[in-house]
Amino acid sequence: MELEEPTSQFKPTIDKRLPTPVPPPVRLLAIADMHLAAVAGLEKQLDEFYVGQLKFERDTEDKAHIAYGAEKFRLVFDVIELPSTRQDYRPVMVQISHFPDFIAGLHERQIEFEWQKGVAPGTETAFLQDPAGFWVSVGPIRTIA
Fold first, then answer.
1. Sheet of 66-69, strands arranged across
2. How far apart, in whole angstroms, are the C-alpha atoms of residue 145 and residue 79?
């Protein structure tokens, strides 16, 4: 099939709007920013886990907390001096686009985790603890096709 010759001359214009930043490849399953408490001195380990393994983005603008940005919400750690009692033990629910690489990284680093199978077929998550002792449930990002 041959294309018709254009009747007018096309001249592209430069878009002067700021580009939209690409969100990180991780989704925090929450309805708002999540706040957790972490004992002082765990910043490096938390960075290795949340930025290095899960691919969150470190929020450097928040100087009062250790904060990690996901696709829509943030995971914010309030730094405390002494461990406090937890109100509940609900896990942090995370979905990532690089799930097979994440599991390979856990095996490579010899980090213990449990497979948690869901009710729907093919829904498996890795269930493990972060450096602050919080339970994290990590699964692949699922899209509806």
1. 34-39, 74-80, 66-69, 57-58
2. 41
> Please, is 106 exposed, middle or buried when counting C-beta atoms within 10 Å of its C-beta (0-12, 13-18, 19+)?
middle
| Residue where the block lists tokens 């294309």 | 3
Tokens 């990590």 correspond to 138
Domain count of the fold of the chain: 1
Is residue 145 very low, low, confident or very high in pLDDT (cuts 50, 70, 90)? low
Residue 87, pLDDT above cutoff 80: no
Burial class (CB in 10 A: 0-12, 13-18, 19+), 137: middle
Domain holding 93, by residue range, is: 26-140
Q: What is the CATH number of the domain that holds 86?
A: 3.10.180.10
Give the Cα separation of 20 and 145 in Å (integer). 25
In sequence order, the 6+-apart residues with CB closer than 8 A to the CB of 33 are 73, 74, 75, 76
Question: To the nearest 10°, the Cα dihedral for 51, 57, 63, 67?
Answer: -70
Q: What is the pLDDT of residues 60-80, one digit of tens each?
A: 998 889 999 999 999 999 998
pTM: 0.79
